[in-house]
Amino acid sequence: MRYGGVRWRWTGFGVHCAEGYKTSIPAGPRTTFSALYWFKMKVTLLLALVLVALVGVTHGGRCVRDNTNGEPGCKSKEEIDQRFWRHNFDPTRYWECTRLNEPAELRTCQDQAFHPSQLECVDWDSWEWEPVCAPLSRPTLN
User: Domain-by-domain residue ranges, the chain?
Assistant: First the structure.
């Protein structure tokens, strides 16, 4: 390669003049990265991918899309502890689990909407649509 009328060559340690002395021309991409740098970069990329996968599993694992009316089965302690569950088709209604293994009771908010995150009736100005998630269990069909 020629630069400034002088013949240059690439070596493992940088750009050198054909006469053998090192120049002030910066080294090319082949010589700037060490094996340790490449190893660190690959480990960092792997850790970033693992982190993204964990975040996806954490957020995606809890909410399962539900195309039913959202009635819970009231078959677990978690459902009883949460007590209120949204009605998926009518924002003015919600389900209430009061006793274990008993059918949920359908309730209505008077002139308000049921907020699925706050688990209470709120004014329409405060209500926001949220994705519909399936309850933990389903009612038993008789």
Answer: 63-141
